[in-house]
Amino acid sequence: MKYISTRGNVEAKGFIDTVLMGLADDGGLMIPSEIPIISAATLEEWRSLSYQELFLKIFSYYTNDEIPYEDLKEMVYTSYANFRAPEVTPVHPINDSLYVLELFHGPTFAFKDVALQFMGELYSYISKKQNKIIHILGATSGDTGAAAIQGVRGKEGIKICILHPHGKVSKVQELQMTTVDDSNVLNLSVKGNFDDCQKVIKDLFADLDFKSKYHLRAINSINFVRILAQTVYYFYAYLQVEGSADKKINISVPSGNFGNIFSGYLAKKMGLPINKLIIATNENNILERFVNTGEYKPGDFTSTYSPSMDIQVASNFERYLYYLIGEDTEKLSAYMSALQSDGKITIEGETLQQVQSDFAALGVKNELCLDTISKYQKAHGYLLDPHTACGIAAYEAFNGPDELGITFATAHPAKFDEAIALIDIKQEFPEEIEALFLMPQHQTVVDHNKDEIVQLLKFFYEVN
């Protein structure tokens, strides 16, 4: 298995080189040169596997034997040893047609832990094997930052800097990042929105001299390993649902940066017989508009009750577009150039029909989000976080009468108590979250100014 860029101007790479490259050197995103197909018979054999065993099966198709099996196994079991649920991502039945895949049992109570605990182990492994320093640089709309920091804090040979939008993440998300006082962690709180943070990151990764000098590595979903690690729980959820061999299964996914839903698209291309992939967004509904109209055009930014999805420019959209247009790198590059110059991409005709065959999408308004939380608390005694509520609302909009739905619970509701308190629901915080409010914070507030951020990064990287 080799890895190539969506834009076609990077020499094919192996697995570890792909991990280290993150954003492709030509500005594209790295993808496998071919996608392995899992047979129906193999899927049935996998039905009884634990999460860790399933992870190892899936990764074995992609690692090119560059990591000895026993080393990979140790990383996987270490990554999930501190999850609060033995299943890692347990499946919770809500009613006869709806299941919730709980992705919030990791150390920061969010789905990003599932991939980033492993990526922290992987980066540490590579750093030790190659005897090289690794500087991880990422942007977060809330959950990625905390999960990434927890994955690598205190690890020798690794420094991590995370940019988050100042005042635009939940208080718990902010505290999970900024109460960490490890010397290898830098939190920059940027006066702007997530798209502003993400643009700085992409610009710095596109500066190949800066990237090379400071050994920059990506933790965001621009790194293919994030995508692949998330693909595992699509397989796990599908195989755990009773009746999945006989009924059509839809999966509804709260979506902001398109990474999580693209992981499902990859799983489906690998042979997992998902019926509908449902994209749930909020008022920042660029993905809904694209699916319904074919126009991919960033709109005005809106702050919502589901801040992790307050994104207008979805990084992983490029990966999907590559496959949508028949893996044509020249055409893909032209589309991305048009996005830069014209501010939009437009898909029409049969290509748009393919998009609508691949996905359904719903932009969930704030009021519906809160109504859904209240409804499921009263009817089922199950408290949803606002992002999961958007996923449930989208499930309700698109799930057919003879179909089963799985909605991803992407975060614990305690992370977004600001929204839940609006509907007079008082929740008890887990002890780990309650303790955050008593801890001092460590962050640097900066303007949305690339030069200022670069100077802070240089000082951080060059201090022993």
Structure description:
This protein has 464 residues and is α/β, with parallel strands linked by helices. Helix 7 links the parallel strand 6 and strand 7. The mean pLDDT is 94. It has helices spanning 15-21, 40-46, 51-59, 69-79, 112-130, 143-152, 171-178, 194-206, 208-213, 224-240, 259-269, 286-293, 317-324, 329-342, 349-358, 366-380, 386-398, 417-420, 431-434, 450-462; strands spanning 3-5, 30-32, 91-93, 98-102, 134-139, 158-165, 185-191, 216-218, 248-254, 277-281, 295-296, 345-346, 359-363, 403-409, 444-447. The protein contains 20 helices and 15 strands.
User: From the alpha-carbon coordinates, what is the Rg to the nearest angstrom?
Assistant: 21 Å
Side-by-side strand order of the widest sheet: 3-4-14-9-10-13
In terms of per-residue confidence, which ranges show pLDDT below 50 for 5 or more consecutive residues?
none
Span of the ends, CA to CA: 38 Å
Shape: globular
CATH topology annotation of the domain at 91-109 and 225-423: Rossmann fold
Rounded average pLDDT: 94
Q: Give the helix level as a range of percent.
A: 40-55%
Strand-residue proportion: 15-25%
Question: What is the count of helical runs?
Answer: 20
Domain Tryptophan synthase beta chain-like PALP: 98-395
InterPro entries: Ser/Thr_deHydtase_PyrdxlP-BS (IPR000634), Thr_synth_N (IPR029144), Thr_synth_N_sf (IPR037158), Thr_synthase-like (IPR004450), Threonine_Synthase (IPR051166), TrpB-like_PALP (IPR001926), TrpB-like_PALP_sf (IPR036052)
EC number: 4.2.3.1
Domain Threonine synthase N-terminal: 2-80
